Structures are given as structure tokens and as C-alpha cells.
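Reopening: C-alpha cells for the iron/sulfur cluster complex, inputs below.
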Amino acid sequence: MLTAPPEATEQLFPLPTASRRARPPGRRPPGFRPLAIRGDRCKGCELCIAACPHQALALDRSVVNPLGYHPVRLVDPSACTSCAICARVCPDAVFTVYAAPKVAA
Ligand code: SF4
Ligand code: SF4
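Re-run output (same inputs, fresh job):
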């Protein structure tokens, strides 16, 4: 399947640099999951994978969903910044994005 080159993604989804920054390690509670993914709705188009600035998503090729596609999976939860770009580009409302609760420094 074709995916957009990074420069094309940048043109389509320009964002201020600050929103692409990863959070410093240790600022999230242990076990926090930034995304809920409705894999049963995913049609494997990979738009979200190309758009994620932190390469936190991939297709799960070990699973076939009821629509007959490999659904997307969060492969690196620690890299996800809850920027919600994936939710904005997904045509099938697969993602719910949660902001991390604030943790005292
Ligand atoms: S919210 Fe989505 S696009 Fe943003 S870093 Fe997390 S997985 Fe990537
Ligand atoms: S989650 Fe949405 S954008 Fe990502 S592959 Fe599935 S259908 Fe496409």
C-alpha cells in the first residue's frame, strides 16, 4: 500500500513545532494509554500511520478484523504525545485520544 512521504504529510497537516514535541520521560502515570482504538472499524488505509509524527502506529498484521483488514495498533505508547493528528485524519472515527493526567514533578 502506498503511503505519503513525510514532506507531503507535513504539507497536508502542518502543525506548530511545540505540538510535535515528545513529553519528557516520567511525566505520565505508569500504564497510561493515550489512545482507545476501535480496531473493528479500521480499514487499514494507513493515513494515520503516515500522519503520526512519532511513528507510534502500525498495522497489526497478526489480526484480521470483521471488515477483512489488518487494523491499526499503537506500537509505542511512550512515544505518543496525545496530539490527536491520527484522530483528525482517520475517516472512520477509530481513535479516542486521552490527554495524560498531570503528574507532580
Ligand atoms: S495521538 Fe496519534 S498521531 Fe499523535 S502521537 Fe499519538 S498516535 Fe501519533
Ligand atoms: S485507523 Fe483510520 S486512518 Fe488509520 S488505518 Fe484505520 S481507517 Fe485508516
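The domain at 32-97 is CATH 3.30.70.20 (Alpha-Beta Plaits). The longest strand covers residues 35-37. Marking as resolved unless the reporter disagrees.
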